[in-house]
Amino acid sequence: MMIKTKDRINYIINEIVDQYTYADSTEKPWIIGFSGGKDSTALLTLVWKALLKVKEELPEPYQLRRPVYVVCNDTMVENPIIVEYTDRVLEKIGTAAKEQSLPIFVQKNIPRLEDSFWVNVIGRGYPVPNNAFRWCTDKLKIKPTSRFISDQVSEKGEAIILIGTRSAESQARAQSMKKHAIRGKRLTKHPNEANTFVYAPIRDLMLEEVWGIIHQDAPWGGDNSELYSIYRDASADDYECPTMVTNKKHSSCGQSRFGCWTCTVVPKDKSMSSLINNGFEWLKPLLDLRQSMVEERNKPENRKTTRRDGTAAVNGMGTYSDKYKRNLLRQVLETQKELQSIKPHIELITNQELIAIQAAWYRDLVFKPLVSDIYNKVYKTDIDMDKQNDKVQKEVELLKKVCNGSPQDFDLIQELLILQKNKSLLNRKRGLKDDMERVIEKYLNNN
Predict the structure, then answer these.
(1) Phi and psi dihedrals of 373, rounded to 5?
(2) 3 state SS of 267
(3) Of 38, 177, 276, 278, which has the highest C-beta tally within 10 A?
(4) pLDDT band at 405 (very low <50, low <70, confident <90, very high)
(5) Is residue 125 a contact partner of residue 118, using CB atoms and an 8 Å limit?
(6) Distances in whole angstroms, Cα of residue 361 to Cα of each of 167, 256, 325, 428, 436
(7) Helix, strand, or coil here: 247?
(8) Is 422 helix (H, G, I), strand (E, B) or coil?
(9) Strand intervals (E) in 2-103
(10) Mind listing the pLDDT tens digit for each residue in 66-115?
């Protein structure tokens, strides 16, 4: 590394020390958006070195009083290569911070169950995102981040978000940073979050300087050679997809090097294709499924003619049909099973999501087939969602007796009970009365 670069790095470290200790005497927490990518890794490295300097050189009044949260958002549909790498790094960060007595705490956020990708696509029938309907950013990234920031602000009154954005990334990024900058101030107000400020310590670094920082040993232990290898193998473009997003104006992950493997905003996933071509052939089923979702998205036979609220959809292209949702669930489970034959720990869709999908289907008055029926067919098991335990079985037998053998009455009451139970699962009790009325109306029309 050239002397000029060393001087610039040292200047940034000293600036971070000053901001942490002298420029702001409060204890408002620092929140670092950590994706595991090059810029966020470089940012955390410099902050870590600054905290070590504070610990070793400064007197007690300026010691490590401010917590630093390393926040990583897992959308639950991230590229598995990145998930595996980031999880290992986060574990090292948490362990090393304790060993070095630094106030650095790892926080991994995931979307709420009702906001997860598969619950919305397979459960509620949202078409996979595109440029005109990019619902995923808000549900998978903005909301988890906002909740964590709000918690910190509620406790401390204010919070500071450290971001790894650089002016040299692109002209648009440089203009955006300049627009929000305040002359003579390191911190800028966050555009969306109240009582929250933004700090970009590496804003002036060039790409070569970022890699220079990363080529050194990580202060939390080990080296960053694996990160370099991932970037090399996934070489498509040089933009890092942020996994901590608080602004809907962020660029699409589909244009980034790393993002959600399900991203359908652009027609082709260059990074996934590049990884497959560079030895990660086991990722191909994911790429194939993603391409299938792109191709199947706008076929009229896969869509209802109405939105979820029952109103007519534009061009008759509403939510996914029940048939396509069942077919997509089967595809996801088959892909998961195929990957698990090579990587047993891989989980594309969680058990909690499967239960929530079933709850969403019940809400839409789709009672057959069950999610478990599709799961059983793929995995050749005999799970039965209707027969969970002896208590449930006793309730069913008692209900049958009360109905005097009338299958129509039994089905009606069963469906009403199912609706009530599953409303609480997704934290969406609103609309229960209307759903029950629809079930009763269907029953009356059929009798």
Answers:
(1) -65, -45
(2) coil
(3) 38
(4) low
(5) no
(6) 47, 34, 10, 14, 14
(7) coil
(8) helix
(9) 30-33, 68-73
(10) 999 999 999 999 999 999 999 999 999 999 999 999 999 999 999 999 99
Dmax (CA) of the chain: 89
Quick one: how far is CA 147 from the chain centroid? Answer: 13
Q: Tell me the residue ranges of DSSP E strands in 55-210.
A: 68-73, 104-109, 159-162, 187-189, 196-199
Cα 82 to Cα 68: distance, rounded to the nearest angstrom: 23
Phi/psi of residue 69, nearest 5 degrees: -100, 125
Phi and psi torsions of 403, nearest 5°: -80, 0
Angle 61-63-65 from CA coordinates, rounded to 5°: 100
Asked if 256 contacts 36 with a C-beta cutoff of 8 angstroms, the reply is no
CB 166 within 8 A of CB 38: no
For residue 222, the SS3 value is coil
Long-range contacts of 329-332 (CB under 8 A, 24+ apart): 329/122, 329/357, 329/371, 329/374, 330/374, 330/377, 330/378, 331/289, 331/292, 332/118, 332/122, 332/289
Amino acid 164 reads G
Pairing of strands 68-73, 30-33: parallel
Tokens of 67: 């917590």
Can you state the angle between helices 371-379 and 322-340, rounded to 10 degrees? 30
Query: pLDDT per residue over 301-320, tens digit each?
Result: 999 999 988 899 999 999 99
DSSP one-letter code for 29 = P
Instruction: Write down the pTM of the prediction.
Output: 0.79
Query: Which residue has tokens 């001087």?
Result: 7
**What would the mean pLDDT of 325-334 be, rounded to a whole number?**
98
**In angstroms, what CA-CA distances link 179 with 160, 176, 188?**
19, 5, 10
Amino acid at 112: R
Query: Is 70 exceeded by the pLDDT of residue 389?
Result: no
Tokens in use for 447?
């009798």
Pairing of strands 187-189, 196-199: antiparallel
Residue 349 CA, distance from chain mean position: 13
User: Residue 32 forms beta bridges with which residues?
Assistant: 70, 162
Q: How many whole angstroms separate alpha carbon 436 and alpha carbon 429? A: 12
